[in-house]
């Protein structure tokens, strides 16, 4: 039995990496992109370039989308809505859980079914062992196409709620981007003192390795308990004040750190000074004042 044929729409760096992975494993591949020139590499490897979105959709049952966001999804699939009937749309585009659920309903109204996905690796990780993508949607559909999807990465099925994969992807990005931005800020402070990013690397790596802290605090947070037996928010405020001042003394932008300091101060104002810094989760739960 031959490998399952796949249609791939969206040929940015991630889409092209996916296309290479499918072709390398012998999957017949039809591709489409708004800029057709981006398909040249894959066509040279054996992919078929569809002449239209409709042609791309009707070519195969399994359609993988690698687009910037769901606005792009609607802009492209909206050109050929009738061709969605009978299609499995594996939507690996990034967006919010709410928009993922809305898109799943939109696809269903047109006779198709959506599997929402959140790819957890950069393009260089596609096709490599030890990688994973979040998926959610109809379990039966996921199981039917799991083997083909595992050509791209490992699969982590989170349930039938179409927004759940998007939620977990955004939760991961919440941690990732704030961590990486804090690293860049530390690099700027380091360079202001004649320290290179390379010299900072061991310290930054150790600081970013917070797994043991997450494991310790997670059960407490889930129980809604924030005792000050290990750390106290008041001590954290003093610590972040020193970090802010270090940046300012170097003449650097302290906007990021000032925002962190402001959150800590809100915790103090709420009477949490003797509690753990984890009590700030309650501050985040309060709606922002407009």
The structural class is alpha/beta
* CATH classification class of the largest domain: Alpha Beta
- In which order are the strands of the major sheet placed? 3-2-1-4-5-6-7-8
Mean pLDDT: 96
Distance N to C terminus: 60 Å
Biggest sheet details: 8 strands, mixed
**Are there runs of 5+ residues with pLDDT below 50, and where?**
none
Strand composition percent: 5-15%
Number of H- or I-type helical stretches: 12
- CATH architecture of the largest domain, please? 3-Layer(aba) Sandwich
One letter per element, helices H and strands E, the order comes to EHEHEHEHEHEEHEHHHHHH
Rg, Å, rounded: 23 Å
Describe the SSE topology:
Layout: E1 6-9, H1 13-24, E2 29-32, H2 40-44, E3 48-49, H3 53-59, E4 62-65, H4 70-77, E5 88-91, H5 97-109, E6 113-119, E7 132-136, H6 139-149, E8 154-157, H7 164-192, H8 197-208, H9 211-223, H10 233-249, H11 255-269, H12 280-285
Parallel strand pairs: 1-2, 1-4, 2-3, 4-5, 5-6, 7-8
Antiparallel strand pairs: 6-7
Helix pairs in contact: 7-8, 10-11
């Amino acid at each position: 039995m031959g490998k399952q044929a796949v249609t791939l729409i969206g040929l940015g760096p991630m889409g092209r990496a996916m296309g290479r992975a499918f072709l390398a494993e012998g999957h017949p591949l039809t591709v489409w992109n708004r800029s057709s020139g981006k398909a040249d590499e894959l066509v040279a490897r054996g992919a078929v370039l569809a002449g239209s979105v409709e042609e791309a959709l009707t070519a195969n049952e399994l359609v993988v989308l690698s687009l910037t966001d769901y606005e792009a999804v609607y802009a492209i699939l909206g050109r050929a809505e009738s061709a969605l009937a009978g299609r499995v749309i594996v939507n690996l585009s990034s967006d919010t859980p709410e928009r993922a659920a809305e898109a799943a309903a939109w696809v269903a109204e047109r006779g198709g079914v959506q599997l929402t996905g959140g790819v957890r690796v950069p393009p260089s990780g596609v096709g490599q062992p030890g990688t994973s993508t979040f998926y959610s949607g109809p379990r039966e559909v996921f199981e039917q196409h799991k083997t083909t999807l595992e050509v791209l990465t490992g699969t982590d099925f989170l349930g039938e709620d179409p927004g759940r994969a998007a939620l977990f992807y955004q939760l991961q990005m919440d941690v990732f981007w704030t961590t990486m931005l804090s690293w860049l800020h530390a690099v700027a402070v380091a360079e202001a003192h004649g320290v290179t990013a390379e010299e900072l690397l061991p310290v930054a790596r150790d600081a970013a390795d917070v797994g043991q802290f997450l494991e310790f605090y997670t059960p407490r947070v889930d129980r809604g308990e924030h005792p000050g037996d290990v750390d106290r928010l008041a001590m954290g405020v003093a610590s972040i004040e020193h970090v802010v001042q270090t940046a300012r003394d170097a003449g650097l932008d302290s906007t990021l750190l000032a925002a962190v300091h402001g959150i800590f101060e809100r915790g103090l104002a709420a009477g949490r000074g003797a509690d753990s810094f984890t009590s700030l989760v309650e501050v985040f739960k309060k709606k922002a004042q407009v």
